[in-house]
Structures
1.
Amino acid sequence: MLPIRVYPSLLACDFSRVGEEVARCEKGGADGMHLDVMDGHFVPNLTMGPDVAKAVRRCTKSTLDCHLMVTDPLAASRWFAEAGVDAITFHAEVASDGRIVADAIRDLGKKVGVSLNPDTPFSLIRPLLRSVDQVLVMTVFPGFGGQKFMESALPKIHEIRQAGFTGDVQVDGGINSETAVACAEAGANVFIAGTFVFMAADLGATIRALRESTKTAFLKGILQPPVAGTR
Ligand code: DX5
Ligand code: ZN
C-alpha cells in the first residue's frame, strides 16, 4: 500500500514565528510541509518567494513540498529548487507542454508533481502520468486558505487511480477529518491541510488522527472502490 502522508500547509501558520511553527509540525509528526507559492497572476494572491523557502529549509530537514500557483513554472521551479525544496508541483493549466516542465523539474533533481484546478478535467494530465511522481488534486479553487472543500473533485481522484496511476495523489483545500476520509476512499494518499491543522488545539493529535482515519479509508477504497460517477 502507498504510504499515507500528512503535510501541513504553512500558509496557515503564524509567519511571524515561522521557525517555531515548523518545529511544531516536526514535533507533531508531520510527514513534511507544504509551501504555497502564489504569483498574483495565476491566482489573485501573493505569498512567498524563494527566500522564504530558503529560510524554512534552514529550520528543517523534513520534506518540503512546493506548490507553484504561478504562470511561469519553468522560471519558478529553478528558484525553488535552488532554495532547497524536495518536490515541485506545477499547474497543468499554465503549461502548453506539461512534459517540458515536468522534465525540467526532474532535471533539477526534484520530485515532480502536476496539479489540476477543480474545473480542469483529468484528460488534460492523462498523457503526463508517466512523467510525474505526484498528482495534486485541488479541492478548492487555489488562491486562499480556509475555503470550503468541493466534493465535486472526488470523482477525479478516482479517475486518476482508475487510469493506473500508482504515485502519490495529493488533495489540497478544505481538508479536515471528514473530507480527508472521503478523499482517501476515492484514492488519495497525501493530505495537505492548513487551517484544520494549525487551528487545532493539539496539532500532533490532529495529524495522527488524520493519518489513522485516512489509512483505513484508503484501504476500504481499494477493497470496495467507489463506482465512478456516484459521488
Ligand atoms: C490553496 C492552497 C492550499 C491551502 C490549504 O490555494 O493551495 O494549500 O493553503 O489551506 P486550507 O487547508 O486552509 O484549505
Ligand atoms: Zn497548496
2.
Amino acid sequence: MKAHEYQAKEIFSRYGIPVEQHVLCSTPDEAVTAFRQLGVNKVAIKAQVLTGGRGKAGGVKLADSETLVRQHAQEILNITIKGFPVTRILISEAVDIAAEYYTSFTIDRNARSVVLIMSAAGGMDIEEVARKTPEKIIHCNIDPLIGLPKYLAQRFAFTLFKQAEQAKRMTTILQDLYKAFIENDASLAEINPLVLTAKGTLRAIDAKMVFDDNALYRHPDVQALFEPTPEEQLEATAKERGFSYVRMDGDIGCMVNGAGLAMTTMDMIKLYGGSPANFLDIGGSSNPVKVIEAMKILLNDSKVKAVFINIFGGITRCDDVAIGLIQAFDQLQTDIPVIVRLTGTNENIGRKLLKDSNRFQVAETMNEATLMAVKSVKGETL
Ligand code: GDP
Ligand code: MN
C-alpha cells in the first residue's frame, strides 16, 4: 500500500524527521488561504498523487504571491499525472536548496535484509543517475539483528556528508527513518530529495512510504491511510467476497476456478492476439451466488466486451456448474457475449445444458474457447 506525500510526511514528523509545515488543499481558494496561514514568503505547491515524477509532469511549482499561488494551484489541479487526476495539492513552505540528496530504506531480497540506499546526486533525475552512473549510488545492507545503532548510522552519514555538523544531522535522520520503516512494516521509506538548505540544515522535502500489505493487519493506523482508487476499491470488494481479482487493461473478462488456470487463461488470450481485462480466480466451487457476484465485478468494468468462463470440474461436477451458470445468467441483466469452456466430470451433460439454454457460446477445448473469445471482442464472426 502506498501513502501520499502528505501522509508520509505526517509519519516522518512523528519520528522526528524534519519536514516543512504544510496544508492539504483541494481548491485554489484553499491554497490561497493556506499561503496566508503559513505566513511565509514562498511556498511549494505539490500535486498529491500516488505516483512519482510529479515535478517533471508539472505537478510541483513554487509561488511567492497570492496571485501566483492561485494560478499554479489551478493549473496543477487541472492536470493528470500518469493516469492519476490531481484532486488535492499540498502547500508547504518553500525551501532554499543548496543540494539535493537521495536516501531510502527498502528490502534487498537477495541479501535477505533491509538496505539503505543513498546518493549525493538526489532529485528528479535519480533513475537516470542509477542507470548511467550507478557508482554514485551507495548501498548499505542492514543486519536485522544489529539494526541501525548510532555508530553505524554515523559511519553511513559520513559517506555522504563531510562536515561534522551535517553528518550529525544525517545520523539522526537515518536512525529516525529506519525506525519509521521498521515499526510500520514498510517496504519503502524514501526521501528524495533530502535537501541541504542554504542555512546548512537538512530537510525532507519529499516523502514516500510503501507498506507491506501482508502486515497491514498489525497497523490499523496505517490501514486507515488507504485511499483506494476506484479500481483498488473494486479489487478490495472482490477480496471481501473471497475472490482473487486483479484488473488489467484488456477487454476480455475472465472468470476461472483456480489461480493456475486463471494465469493460463490470460496467457492463452494473449497468445491468440487478445487482451485480458482481468485476472479472476473464483476459487474451488462455482455456485450461482458466486457466479453472480463474480459477474457483477466483471461487468463493473466498462472495458469488458466479452466474458470467458473457464472451469475445470475436478471436485465440482460440470453439470452442477452449468446449472449454476444458467441460474446466474437468468438473474443477470447483460447481453455481453459469454464463452464457456467446461472440462471434467460430466462435461458432456454440462455442455449440453449450456448449449440448450442458448445463452452461452460453448467450447470443448481451451484453444477453441480462447479463439471464440478473441474473435467475439474483435467483432469477427465465428
Ligand atoms: P517528485 O518529482 O514527485 O519527486 O516531487 P518532489 O517533491 O521531489 O519535487 C520535485 C522537485 O521540485 C525537487 O527535486 C526540487 O528540485 C523541487 N522542489 C520541491 N519543493 C521545493 C521547494 O520547497 N523549494 C525549491 N527550491 N524546490 C523545490
Ligand atoms: Mn521526489
